[in-house]
Amino acid sequence: MAKPVDTTESRAARSPQSAAARQRLEKTTADLLRRSRNTRLMLLTPAIATILLFGITPLFIILVYSFLEPGSYGGVTWNFSLEAYIQFLFERDIFDDTLVFHTSYLQIYGRSVGLALIATLGTLVIGFPTAYFIATKPREQRNFWLFLVTLPFWTNLLIRTYAMLLIIRDEGVINHGLQGVGLIEQPINILYTDFAVCMGLIYSYLPFMVLPLYASLEKLDFRLVEAAYDLYANRFMVLRRIIIPMAKPGIIAGCILVFIPGLGAYITPELLGGGKKLMIGNLIAIQFGSSRNWPFGSAAALILMTIVMVALLIYMKNAKQGQGAGGHG
Amino acid sequence: MADLKQALRFGGRQKDLRYQPGFTQMAWLCIFVLYAPIFMLVLYSFNDNRSVTLWTEFSLRWYMAAYENAGIQRAALISVEVALVATVFSTIFATMAALATTRTAPFKGQAAAYTIVNQPLMVPEIVTAIATLSFFALIKQLTGVSGIGYLMVAHTVFCIPFAYMPIRARLEDMDLTLERAAADLYAKPFQIFRRVTLPLLMPGIVAGAMLAFVVSLDDVIISLLVAGPGETTLPIYILGQIRREITPEINAISSVFLLISVLFVTLFFIIEGKRK
């Protein structure tokens, strides 16, 4: 992280200076770098305190909330209860209070994981060739291509999802176009299906996949590719045995970057799934909105967090193995 | 035989050993997929027809309608207010944190500091949203204080890592030569910061501030849950409108919104590009 030390030292070593001058230089550099503990603490405090207080404390609040009883108008009543977690797996019979195992919430989680995985795969299939294409462009063109891919990421997700909705509606451009050419009589129903949600997720998170892939493909040493051709490998073998393994850190980073927001997506299933095709994000939001069951919403959010943490742990384990080969998170 | 194979392999446009069949086409498809929906949205914002998808003729009437819509005006104002406050605070905090993590010798807890600064990026947005809502509801209950301040605080938190990234990157690229020279000339630490470090760092700070501003302006989920009554930001307004009825007015306001983001991000890339 703090690498300036090395550069200054090597620089000092290279320049033809007297030992005394070099020593003095090293001392001022060291003085510059060794800011007092207090200064550093003062500089770090605002950011760290803000995030600790308003970013991390709230997570503990919902952890507590998930073990409480729901209040009648939202909020919580301060009685310990495991009801939120029980409700996740069981349905309580209103007459005799017996618990019956049910899978409706598990299904929402399963569906969300499935959709997020398919979307991740989709972005990988489109994103890998794109990242490779950019990485093999002349250096001065690469920034422009990266800009082109990144720009949609910085534009509003809601607006992009809305744009997608306009296209795949029954009266949308795709159906109008197909009907116009006479390929179909009736509009194909795309909107409010799992397929639509998947398309939306791929569309939303494509840039997240391309960037880390590019970062690792850019470092690819094409002498290895050349060597493989010399050994009579064909293009597919080069791709499978050289390029893809070398890009592995980028592939994993990209998959994580797409999978995590995809799993917790709210806007995409809301607009393109039409409220019928719930994902975890919508389930959580509903508990804090119309259902007014904050403990259950908190529990649902914590279960989502757990899945995300597991995914991150897998990523970090892989990132450690792939260290030195590049890639970023 | 081997020579023939070699000749075939490196014949034609396949001479480039980096060539992979279909990759270029896929890249173009990717760009098409990314831009086609946005392009259609902007195109139809200029459509005179009330229907969002039937093209009749070019017109600016929906832009006029959006401009005169009091609800949109109010929402835009709130969005800008919140984004400005969040940008100022998150950029100042991020700059200080970036100086602390790059301009000092490695210290214990550096990794922890780095993780905390980036924390908002690692938690799914919906979780952040409901956790923030719960926390603020608790504070409201205890203190009775309400208002737009909550929304501003929530935005400041998630803007910090976005402002931090370009500022830290710039600091890491700047070597210490000039700062060292200033120190040699007996400048005091604050003078060095004020006269040398800060001017050199300015492009990074501006870039960070622009990202923070765009990210705050674009936020939907956190605002949706945290915003109190009467604190409708522009994205919340748009979402509500899409849920009710799709009108070309939404296309118009979305297009303006897109234009603003594109302008800011383009400026960001120009500033960042100059760095190298």
Automatic annotation (TrEMBL), chain A:
This is Spermidine/putrescine transport system permease protein. Keywords: Cell membrane, Membrane, Transmembrane, Transmembrane helix, Transport. It comes from the Bacteria. Belongs to the binding-protein-dependent transport system permease family. CysTW subfamily. InterPro entries: MetI-like, MetI-like_sf. Residues 1-22 are annotated as: Disordered. It is found in: Cell membrane. GO terms for cellular component: plasma membrane. Residues 1-12 have a biased composition (Basic and acidic residues). GO terms for biological process: transmembrane transport. The keyword Transport applies. It comes from Limibacillus halophilus. It is a multi-pass membrane protein. Residues 109-315 form the ABC transmembrane type-1 domain.
Automatic annotation (TrEMBL), chain B:
GO terms for cellular component: plasma membrane. Residues 76-271 form the ABC transmembrane type-1 domain. The chain crosses the membrane at residues 26-46, 76-100, 121-139, 145-164, 196-215, 221-240, 252-271. GO terms for biological process: transmembrane transport. It is found in: Cell inner membrane; Cell membrane. Gene3D superfamilies: MetI-like. It comes from the Bacteria. SUPFAM superfamilies: MetI-like. It is a multi-pass membrane protein. CDD domains: TM_PBP2 (cd06261). The keyword Transmembrane helix applies. Keywords: Cell inner membrane, Cell membrane, Membrane, Transmembrane, Transmembrane helix, Transport. Signal peptide: none annotated. PANTHER family: PUTRESCINE TRANSPORT SYSTEM PERMEASE PROTEIN POTI (PTHR43848), SPERMIDINE_PUTRESCINE TRANSPORT SYSTEM PERMEASE PROTEIN POTC (PTHR43848:SF5). Required for the activity of the bacterial periplasmic transport system of putrescine and spermidine. Belongs to the binding-protein-dependent transport system permease family. CysTW subfamily. This is Spermidine/putrescine transport system permease protein PotC. It comes from Limibacillus halophilus. The lineage of its organism: Bacteria, Pseudomonadati, Pseudomonadota, Alphaproteobacteria, Rhodospirillales.
